[in-house]
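Our platform keeps sequence and structure together, in a single record for each protein. Such a record has a labelled line for the sequence and another for the backbone structure tokens. The tokens are whole numbers drawn from a learned vocabulary of local backbone shapes. The remainder of this section carries one protein's record, kept here as part of the documentation:
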Amino acid sequence: MTRGRGLLYLLLGIYAALTLGPFLWSLSASFKTVEAVSAWPPTLIPRPFTLENYTYLLEKLPFLRWMFNSLVIAGIVTVANVFLNAMAGYALARLRFPGRKVLFWIIIGTMMIPGQVVIIPVFILLSKLGWIDSYAALTIPFLTSAFGVFMYRQFFLGVPKSLEEAAMLDGMGPFQTFFRIILPLAKPVMAAQAIFMFLGSWNGFMWPAMLLSTPAMYTLPVGLSSFQGQYYTLWNLVMAGTMFVTAPVVVVFIIFQRYFIQGVSTTGIK
């Protein structure tokens, strides 16, 4: 082993330790009592080891309801974005209609608007529609995304037009061509979108905290924030809840990881 490679492995090991350290501490703290979490110096092995934190979450709080809410909202937003963004991206990449380029730049321009700017207008609109404290408030405004449309458009620009011409010669219409020929080719982009959208919706806090008011409608991030007060924080419960938040994210990434890097790397290739 050369000295340079040994130094590289050392740096990678340090980076891995810094990355995994907070997660391992969180996992350890989820099995500790309040006193043990606050003890100094901190210990990685829980002493005493307890399952009371998980029991309290599942039996004393509507934690499963919060998880169900998060799954419903993240699931709807993810599935809708994967398919609606694909159709919009394909239309902008292939169809010829007046104002196509202007429309694309308007969509891209919305990415430059900070989310904080639209908080009040969106809240007023949803309030007038009577959607506050409902699934509709956290799903319908987020069924598409400008970044998702951009990713799909860039990918479809690189798909040979000969595939669509061959499909039309076989008697396929535009929708058949899209769903049976073009969309299956976009699996890497679909996987990347699924991960991005699921993570964004699953971990989202600002919009759920603004639009939800009853505990039964809370998502996991909003529910976990209730363990933090002005003068104290129940870190053992927060860490136990964090493990529930992390698990679905890991599962989704494991399922789509084979396509993820390929999807991110190919969307900018024409």
In short: The chain has a mean pLDDT of 83. The chain has two domains: 1-50, 60-266. Residues 60-266 form a domain with the MetI-like fold fold (CATH 1.10.3720.10). DSSP finds 14 helices and no strands in the chain.
